[in-house]
Amino acid sequence: MNNSVTNTARLLWAGLRALLLLTVVTGILYPLAVTGVAQGLFHDKANGSEIKSNGKVVGSSLIGQSYNLPLKKGQETPEPDLKWFQPRPSNGLGTNSVNTQYKLILSGATNRSGDNGAVNGRCPKHAGEDTLCAWVVAAKAAVVKDNSVNGYTVQDVPADAVTSSGSGLDPDISPEYAGIQVHRVAEKNGLPAAQVQKLVDEHSDGRTIGFIGEPRVNVLELNIALRELVADS
Fold it and tell me: pLDDT (tens digit, 9 = 90+) per residue, 16-54?
């Protein structure tokens, strides 16, 4: 009987020591080591790839933001603030009222196949309202209408102007989409179109390592530069 109690106590003490040791190693030392390496070598990424303007954090380079006008009475969907470069369409489930810059609770894609609503490979004018075709047709019409200003007419609308990304919160747009917004942004801000185009060119990034992904423009960084340009004008 005494041997049984002694053995049980010995096992419990060994288990307790193992628990304490593993708690210190995996719960304290390892997280501190990983945090230290991350802060030392990847400080920007470890802190959320924050973007600052005038000394304040205004967003992340990894998450898209909306640039809309305040909701008017009776409106359910806000109108875009056309003095800013606009991002890709966003998608998701649910909304929150706390942080309206990141209004969606769950992000996600449109979850529609490429031929959803199409007939013989084309989108009919009267496609069903809840189809990808209808969304694309409506988005394309809005892009052409908003950006055809001062004698400039939008001819080709890039795909990223009318569809959301897989995450639904893409922070980047293509240089082509930024390019068709130049004349409208210039007009709304009283700037020469050539000056705004130069801004786009300066903030356009090529493919990663020359072959990964697509050329892109970070919308938040571009709009921060635009604000600074308007302030200096």
Answer: 999 999 999 999 999 999 998 888 888 888 787 888 888
Instruction: Write out the two tokens for 69.
Output: 């006008």
Kindly report the pTM of this predicted structure.
Answer: 0.77
Name which of 187, 175, 195 is nearest 147 in CA terms: 187
DSSP string, 36-97: HHHHHH-HHHHTT-EEEETTEEEEETTS----BPPPPTT-SSPPB-TTS-------EEEE-S
Q: Which residue reads 């005038």 in tokens? A: 54
Both tokens of 59, joined, read 């967003």
Both tokens of residue 230?
A: 């308007």
